[in-house]
Amino acid sequence: MTRTRALPPALCGLALLGALSPALSPASPAHAASWQLRWSPSAAKDGLAAFEGVEDDRAGSHPGVTHIYVQGDAYRFDMHMRDRDSSTDRQRQEVKGMRSPAGGPYLVWKKGQTWRLTYAMYIPGSLKATTTFTHIMQMKMPGNDSSPILTTSLRRYGSTPKIELKVENSGNALVGAADLAPLQNKWINVEFEMRIDDAPNGTVHWVIRDGSTTVLDATKTKLDTWLSDRVRPKWGIYRSLGDKSGSLQDCYLLLRDLKAYQLA
Asked: DSSP letters along 204-220, please?
């Protein structure tokens, strides 16, 4: 007669559980949000088709001259003192929005989403901070009469030139500022992150790096970063001619290695 050896009580419980629930397995971990690369144009390969639109002398003030173009692996924006926007008290040479892939559909930013932009920027000594507005990056809702949601600007305070980021849609709330002079005539790296939402749920994070040195790392919360429809970035030079410091002159701006990530 064959005798069956009894299992210890603990193992009996495990065997019973396995028999009753053969498909039972440990719970899968919750999905962790991560940054998804959505846009990474090559200036040399994609050219201006990487953008939704190009505003190169849209008033026709400097005929026969191209102000926005590819130079090597960078996008170049030229501004001459004779250039005028459709409002003649200011100047504008900008690109707007993103196409992914280049020449393809618009990359749409909507309420409730979080996006990150990274890029390298070269601000020459000729592109000076001014007592009135000189914007080199904006976030806007499409539409000619739409006010900026936020702006990165070169502004002079007394004798001190600064680069700063303000959220105009939240009462010109200052996210951060740094001295401009040490950042000119060299490539610097910018990281910009934005949660798009009504107040108090909007957030902006802004970082400037000079090589391995973090010059500025600032975050502002409880912001209003949404108007309507959608949000899109603009890069280039958009400045007032009302400066009283004598800082206006022919100048340019260079951008390269632009990337956009969505938190998903």
From this structure: EEEEEEETTEEEEEEEE
pLDDT in tens, 145-174: 789 999 999 999 999 999 999 999 999 999
CA distance 44 to 31: 37
Biggest CA pair distance of the chain: 109
HEC letters along 240-254:
ECCCCCCCCCCEEEE
Stretches where the chain sits below pLDDT 50 are 1-25
φ, ψ for residue 131 (rounded to 5)?
-75, -20
Domains and CATH numbers, the chain: 33-263 (2.60.120.200)
Buried b or exposed e, range 73-94, using 16+ CB within 10 angstroms: ebbbbbbbeebbbeeeebbbbb
Structure tokens at 3: 């005798």
